[in-house]
Write a structure and sequence with these properties.
single chain, mainly alpha, Tetracycline Repressor, domain 2, Four Helix Bundle (Hemerythrin (Met), subunit A), 12 helices
Length: 291
């Protein structure tokens, strides 16, 4: 059981589950948008290959940040800083998993899907990860790989990328920034000890953090409605509007008083928002030929 817990922590299992959910939803939506039946045969290959890439990316992140993980309360008991697994062992496993995942996607899905997965890993581990120690803009950079599962899943359907895939990417990108700001506020003292340059560290009263959360949540409202221009029906429009306004309300509440409970509330709302929005979109989507 301890080995399983360590493995789950190394691959950041909960984050990976969300990434896989997004990729599967995007695969479904791409098929429906192009007027085709859902290709169930590609699903296990997408899940297997993308899970390997995500696992490799998450484990490699912990290799690169083992020193700072040891300084933070919430991460000091992770397998590498706690000494349960050697850093070089995780490095070898992470690179092997990532390479296997990219190769599997290229072979059994398509090269575009594999290339997008590799791009996601590269930006996450070699741009976002080092930038956390350099600039508060790391949050914006980190939103790019965080939104990539939408493109990976969409490309797996075999129709390339189009404007609707860009809509999904934009929704995920905008959603992540208030989500990350809430996390950065909750763990700001840990991030200070680690030497990370987060917007919340130079923002004792939370005004800048609150403004940023509101600005990005406000931009998410019209972005979340864009799929209606591509065929999503009134049920999606109404549901997306209500969800996005609720997310904006949580961000506004955080802006009016950036306390720990309000940051936690914003985080909880963000975690509910995305799966519900994807469920609405998947349930409401219809083949383009039927529109």
């Amino acid at each position: 059981m301890n080995r399983l817990r360590d493995a789950a922590e190394l691959i950041k299992l909960r984050i990976q589950a969300m990434a896989l959910l997004v990729a599967v939803a995007a695969l479904w939506l791409a098929s429906r948008h192009n007027g085709a039946a859902f290709d169930a045969a590609v699903l296990p290959h997408l899940l297997a290959g993308f899970a390997l890439v995500c696992s490799g990316a998450a484990a490699l992140n912990q290799v690169l940040e083992a020193d700072v993980d040891a300084r933070m309360q919430r991460t000091r008991l992770r397998p590498i800083p706690a000494g349960r697994i050697a850093r070089r062992t995780v490095l070898a496993l992470s690179l092997t998993a990532a390479a296997a995942g990219v190769a599997w996607l290229a072979w059994r899905v398509n090269p575009l899907c594999a290339g997008l997965s590799l791009t996601m890993l590269a930006v996450y581990d070699f741009a976002y990860t080092p930038l956390k120690r350099i600039t508060p803009l790391n949050t914006i950079v980190g939103a790019f790989p965080g939104a990539m599962p939408a493109l990976v899943g969409w490309s797996a359907a075999g129709y390339g990328l189009d404007f609707v895939a860009g809509m999904l990417f934009a929704i995920l990108f905008l959603w992540q920034i208030p989500h990350f700001i809430a996390i950065a506020w909750i763990h700001r003292e840990d991030y200070r000890r680690a030497g990370f340059r987060m917007i919340t560290l130079a923002d004792a009263e939370g005004r800048a953090s609150g403004r940023q959360a509101v600005s990005w949540a406000l931009a998410l409202v019209p972005a979340s409605l864009l799929p209606s221009l591509a065929g999503a029906g009134p049920a999606y429009f109404c549901g997306a509007l209500l969800l996005s306004l609720g997310f904006l309300a949580a961000a506004l509440r955080f802006r009016l008083g950036s306390s720990l409970p309000r940051a936690r509330s914003l985080l909880r709302v963000s975690l509910v928002y995305l799966p519900l929005l994807l469920l609405l979109l998947a349930a409401d989507a219809a083949p383009a030929a039927a529109r």
